[in-house]
Amino acid sequence: MLQEIITEGRTRLLGAVRQELLSGVRSAPQFARLQLQLRRFPDVVLQMEDYETAGKLSNRCQAHGIAGSSIDMLLCSVAQRRGWAIFTSDRDFERYAKHIDIKLYR
Q1: With contact defined as beta carbons under 8 Å apart, do 10 and 40 qualify?
Q2: 83: nearest Cα among 10, 22, 26
Q3: In the chain, what is the straight-line distance between the N-terminal and C-terminal CA atoms, in Å?
Q4: Can you tell me the distance from the alpha carbon of 41 to that of 12, in angstroms, rounded to the nearest whole number?
Q5: Which CATH number is 46-106 given?
Q6: What sections of 1-106 are H helices per DSSP?
Q7: What are residue 54's phi and psi, to 5 degrees?
Q8: Domain edges within the chain
Q9: Is pLDDT of 4 > 90?
């Protein structure tokens, strides 16, 4: 499925996720390869409403006893506001989806 959405040009990346993926790569050649591969994915331009909605979604999750990271909530906000599905193997997003309106690739 990941191959399909990449081939079809349906992938986007938040700058914070790009940074997270590149952080901790110890070897310079490996960093350069990953950096080059990630450049194929356009960054999403964020708007004030993305951050505000992320705060709202975070509060909603917290009201249900779920603490999500700021970046996770920003991802949820961006996807929700644009009608996009989130491609992730992180099970936290399944917990978020029980309380906030997000779509996940299955």
Answers
A1: no
A2: 10
A3: 9
A4: 6
A5: 3.40.50.1010
A6: 2-7, 15-22, 28-38, 48-63, 70-82, 92-97
A7: -60, -40
A8: 1-44, 46-106
A9: no
